[in-house]
Structures are given as C-alpha cells and as structure tokens.
Fold each of these.
Amino acid sequence: MADRGCSDAELVAVTRAGSKDAFGQLADRYYRMVSILACQKIKSRSDVEDVVQEAFVRAYRALDSLREPWKFGGWLYHIALQICLDRLRGCDAVLVQCAQAGNREAFCNLAERHYRDVALLLSRLAPDRATDEDLIREVFTRAYERLTTLVDPARFGAWLEEIAVAVWRERG
C-alpha cells in the first residue's frame, strides 16, 4: 500500500508494480480536476460521469506508456480532454445531420453549443466588436443557409470558424 503523501511518480511506479490502491489514490487526487473539465466541455450531466470514468480507465490501461510519471496530472487531463472533444464532435455530427434533414431545433442546439466559441473568436479578431450580437447572428445565419454544403459533419466547429472569419472580413 502506498503512503498518501506519495508523489504522482511514486504512485505511478507502485501502480505499475501491481497496486490498484496506488491508482485509486491517483484517481482520488485528480477526480475533481477531471470532473470540472468534463462539466465545462460536456453539457449533459449524465455524460460527465461517463467521461470521468472513461478517462481513468484509459489512463490505467495506458499507464505503461506514460514516459514522465511526474506529469501524470497533465497526461490525465489530456486524455480527458480528448474524450470530451471526441464526444462533442460525435454529438455535433448527429446534430448537423438532423439539421441538414430540416430539423431547425437541431441547428439551434448547434448554435447554442458553439455560441461562446464564435464570440471568443470574433473578440480576438476585433476586440472592439466583441459583443456585437449582429455580427454573431450573421455568422449563424450564414451557417444555417450554407449547412447543406458541409460535407463532413464532424468538422462543424472548424467550418463555423471559417464562416466567422469570412463574415468578419466582409464587415471589417
């Protein structure tokens, strides 16, 4: 059994030697961090716990690939972030396909999910117009009008950023 005051590197080493208790201590140490990340990225409360659990399972299974055990926290954060992004891309793809089939509510859900990202991008491009609701509305209006041209629904976020930049340049 590992001492509760052990460093991440020590707990990783003890886990690699076969102690599940040591990994449990790592999980206890980083549960809050992973949960907060999942809550920030995934809006569905029921999916948050799934993301947290999947992150720890993946980390445990891949622990032998961790080259710098003292960086366990950052490595775990990256794993959890990738799981969140994968889920968001999958969800976006489903919503895009529904919206392309004429479901306006699905597009509204997409717009709600990506509103903050578009607003942030526009604020970086034009700090003086960061809260320009008309500019943001124009981005989503144009995206809705061109939705049928989106070939890869999983790329919705990047595609929307391209539209935002184009609208900003036209209005700039």
Amino acid sequence: MAELPERDAALLLDMLLAARDARSFVENLDEAGFLASRLHQNAAFRSVEVIGEAAGKVSAATSAAHPEIPWREITGMRHRLIHGYGEVRLDLGWMVLRERLGPLIAVLEAHRSRRERGRSMMNAERLLNYYEIIADAPDAIAPCAASFPTCPCAANSCRRTQATNRRRSC
C-alpha cells in the first residue's frame, strides 16, 4: 500500500477523532433520550458534519484507494445536515450514530495502525542504515571535539554544552 500524502492522513485522522466524539456524545443514551436532547443531537451531528467535511477534502487518489470507506454516503450525510437541516430525520441520524460509526471507526483505526507500523518500519530501517554508516566510517561521523564551536555562554558550564561534550568525546 502506497504512503498517503500527509494532508490526506491528517484528514483521515480528523474523521476518526470526530467519529469517536460523535459516538461518545451518545454512548450513554437510548434513542428516546437522544430524541429528547437537542444538546446531544447538535453535538453528535456537528461531529458528523466534520467527518463529512474532511471526507470531502480527501484526494481522489486516496478515496479510490480506499473503497471500504463509504465516501459518497459520508459527504451526502454532511450535505443533508448542513443544507437540509430542517428536514433531518432524527431516527435516521440515531441509526447512523449507533450502527454506522462503529464500522467507520474500525476502518479508520486499522488504517492509522497500518500507517504507524509502516512509519515505525521506515524509522527502524533509517536507524539501521545510520548505524551501518557509523560502523563503516567512525572517523567521519565522530570528528574531534576541537572542531566544534564553543558554548555561546562562554562559561562552558551550561546544560547545552555539557550534553554536547558528552556526545562528542573522542
């Protein structure tokens, strides 16, 4: 799987966080409690709007690469909440909050987990390459301390200089 552009990765994270928020706003409610509480309706639907807004900004390449995410339905729900606010059916909104957000959260979390595993592998490879370079040419990596500039405080006693001196001992 190709690496996502940073912007798309950030948008998917926005979607995940907003989906978690929406679920948390209604987790201790039953349908009757939700229908009676404009506070919970507005909070949860605002999060659904954020999910839809972020989904609409994801690049076409990323949305095509992830057909498991219902992009059209998500952005359509956002448009309905924003533009058709007077015609929103609360029972359908409740169904989305209780039945559709869980699977979306699972997909987004799985994607995030894969991305973080990939990033960890890249960092491990870079670190391994760095250590191989050091092993091959220790003199090129650790030059004599005399070539480093002196401490800006001129006392050579600040924490910065002490830490630097520990790193550059020959």
Amino acid sequence: MITILEQEMYSLIGSQFEKNYIVSYEVPLLNSRKKIDVLCLNKNYHKKRNIELIAIEAKVKDRKKVLYQAFTRLSCVDKVYIAIYEKHISDEFLNCSTINKYSIGVMSVNSKAKIIKKAKKSNLLIPSRKERIINNLLDNLD
C-alpha cells in the first residue's frame, strides 16, 4: 500500500537542497504546460558566473514516465534527479542505461528524501534554455 502522494514528496525532496539552494516547486518548463516538480537554484547565484540549476522529477511509482521527464530536463538544467518512493527502487532501476548514460541522479523518498545516486553535470545542456528558466524563476521570486 502506498502511503504518500507525489506532491507530498516535494517538500521532503526540497529539504535536501534548501541549505545551499533556493527551492521552488512546480516551476513551468519554458513555453509549456509541463512543470518541473522541484527546481533548485544555488543561493549565491548573483555572485557566481556559473549558476547551478538542478531539476528533480518525482513519481511514486511510474518509473518509465519519470525517466522520460528527467531525460527531457537534461537540456534545461545542469543536473537532474529522479525521486521515487523507496519501495519502488530496485537494483535493476538503478542500473538502467538511461540513468547511467546521462548521469541522472536518484533519490529515494519515504519519511525523508535521500540521495542514493549523485547526478553529474548534463552534457545535453542548452545554455539559452537554462537562462530562460532562470529568468522566469527569478521574475517569480520577486
């Protein structure tokens, strides 16, 4: 029996990043109706040349859908994580070719979220897409 909803996972995920990042939830993805579940922007973004942007896509158990969502975010952010309810994470999933080939990180979520596989910088990043997301995010923070 599943005891958590996807939206309930967001704050648990955000708590893993809020020390060093501004954390936002359900952020619009460019000119789309789609949203990034959790988006993290490093807190000292105004002092850095290289602003780090991290997207986390969460699902309770739909691993195929979350893999697709994570893959589509690789062109917009520096790093991407998938967050899954811990009972639905298997070794087979962690060794998935998409996760490994594109250096997507994995988080498990239950009463708290924890990183079980660190994400690496995306090699599919398109800087102009990242910049548009940052600008939209900053406009909404004011």
Amino acid sequence: MSLTAAFCCRSENKCRKKMAVYPYLTFNGNCGEAMQFYQACFGGVLQLRYLGESPQGSTMPLAMQQLIVQASLISEHIRLFASDLGHEEGHYAGNSISLLIGMSRSEMLGEIFNKLAFEGEVTAPLSPGLKKGQWATLTDRYAVQWIFEVQ
C-alpha cells in the first residue's frame, strides 16, 4: 500500500496530479527522542525545528522553547512528520494514528518489526515464514500503533 494516491479531475476523468498523504504524529514533549528512535529503525535524514527558533520563540518560557514545532524524517522508503504541539486538550491515547508498513521482503519487515517492538508491546506477533497478505501489529514505546503487512 502506497502513501501516494492519484488526484483525478472529475470533468476530464484523467489523473493529472499526484497527491501524497503523510503520517503526522503528535507527542507530549518527547518528539525529538521518538523521532531519533524512528531514524535508528528506518534510517533517513531527521530535521527538528524547535519552538524557540520561531519569531517569538525567545519570549517564551525555556521549557516551551525546547518543544519541537515540526520534525521530519525522510528516506527512500518513509516520510514521517511529527510535533510536540497538539490540540488544546493535549495528547492522549487515541488522538494519534496507526501506521501501516507494507513490504514484499519479509526479512526486512521482520527486522523493522523487531526494532520498533523494543520496549513496546507486540499485539499480534509475526508468524514464522510470513506470506503475502499476512500481518502483525505492535504498539511502540511511544504509544504509536504499527501495522505490518507482507505484500
């Protein structure tokens, strides 16, 4: 399953542009730590922008300046975005999202599954000798739910 979907113009019924949908995670003050963990799992380039770097950032309390306003992890296989800044009601279990990882190479899927499972909770374990259409799930140590599927 791809994160990229075609945007079709109804009047012409032809696909003209591509639109991408990317996961955006909200954390409660540990965004940088979580994104560094995901970088260790997936590789890629991690960029962190702190609230203190914003135009009014220097006028905010030091604790707020250290919050991440936007983080991005970009590699050949993943584009993941995150922040410490969420809704007014704050961060709670259920207002984050699940992420689906589909792979045709079950050995790579198993390697990433095991990395993300470290200090997390496996909710549906990987079966030995995964075959196309099989899946597994886990919640990582940052309470993000992951779904793995062999394609």
